[in-house]
Amino acid sequence: MGVGYLRTALRLNSPSPEGEGEIGTRFGHGGGVTMIKSRFGYTLLLYALLPRALLHLWWRARRQPAYLEHVAERFGRYDIAAGQPLIWVHAVSVGETRAAEPLIDALQRKYPRHRLLLTHMTPTGRETGETLFGNRVLRCYLPYDFSFAAGRFLDHFRPACGILLETEIWPNLVNACHRRNIPLYLVNARMSDKSFRGYRRFAALTAQSLRQLTGIAAQGRVDADRLAELGATAMQVTGNIKFDIAPDPELLARGAAWRKTYGESRPVLLAASTREGEEALLLQALHRADIPRLLTVIVPRHPQRFDEVAALLERERLPFQRRSANEPIAAGTRVVLGDSMGEMFAYYTACDAAIIGGSLLPFGAQNLIEACAVGRPVIVGPHIYNFAEATQLAVDAGAAVQVEDARSALAAVRELLRDPARARRMAQAGLDFTRSHQGATDKILRMLKF
What we know:
Elements: H1 39-61, E1 86-90, H2 94-99, H3 101-110, E2 115-120, H4 123-133, E3 138-141, H5 147-157, E4 161-165, H6 171-179, E5 184-189, H7 193-200, H8 203-212, E6 215-218, H9 221-230, E7 235-237, H10 249-262, E8 268-274, H11 278-288, E9 295-300, H12 306-315, E10 320-322, E11 335-337, H13 344-349, E12 353-356, H14 369-373, E13 378-380, H15 388-397, E14 400-402, H16 406-418, H17 420-436, H18 440-447
Parallel strand pairs: 1-2, 1-4, 2-3, 4-5, 5-6, 6-7, 8-9, 8-12, 9-11, 10-11, 12-13, 13-14
């Protein structure tokens, strides 16, 4: 997740795993904060940071007004009816919400009499949940990790079971579930080396929270070993549920239709889920690359950056079109700005090769599994700590290549376009790689007891 311990409790000015800067701070890099050894000290620090948290909400709302919506939910006040019985799944932002899709589908099949509650911390996560699930689930914000707010949340919804995705360790919330005998699981759990070092600075508090969880489903053996060293006990290695995501046939058809509007004989490069600064690096590399008639599709990770990237393209005087304009792509257009949400499988389907964003600069990379799942050759940069195991497995399987920088990424694209046979082998390797690692969702379902 890229930050020190307590990242998920209050995120002030530090990037969340989705780069949204949700309320938190880099506790693992501070001075006096390393003295926190108990939930009492932790809670005192949360109260001390509360004014800054509220200021941060206002600051974020300057670019995303949705940050000032549903503020009461962040303190445990809800208008929506709970309904019983209920299963609660927490997915902090966009990536976790998309990863939750196979799990939520499976839960609804197995427990048809239960309502599903999906909680988030970011507006874009909430919007993604609405796009993916519509009225199939209830949705709201999970409150900040104050004891009173966690208690209100649990007493209002009274979940039969709680499921936290990836690296969500909230000491007061975990303790509140433990005291109410609500089973609480951490699933699809991952622990990068960077996050591990941060959590280790708060060893006693981390261990207490991990041991109060009913169970932990780790993505891989390295994640499990790090969690065990931090104090986790009730743990299994189940794999990554992102391999279980089934591409929506409607999105695949949409992508195929886009490919025709791009020009079926024209090479198409996708820069997927790019982060701050990466677009400029890629555009510089594009100027040097010798790839005739190349159409580059750039999809920024966060919607608040769509206009920023458009302004960059205008400064570079590159002819571009916006996806949101929904117009045929002109022959002279060199870049398509993917300013839409929830269409990533369509973007992957419409390209010949994909560069994975977040990997060219130290953001830890975004998910490469979706590109492999639709059979597209993948190029990743050097910064992969959020997806280190999946990336290495993809490289070993021949589905991806790892490069040092943007310039070498474009060189790899050029070689793939000049060698269609190799591109086809990588595409098939991606499909095989994805299928061979499926099954985590079923293992998690078997672990849940409530």
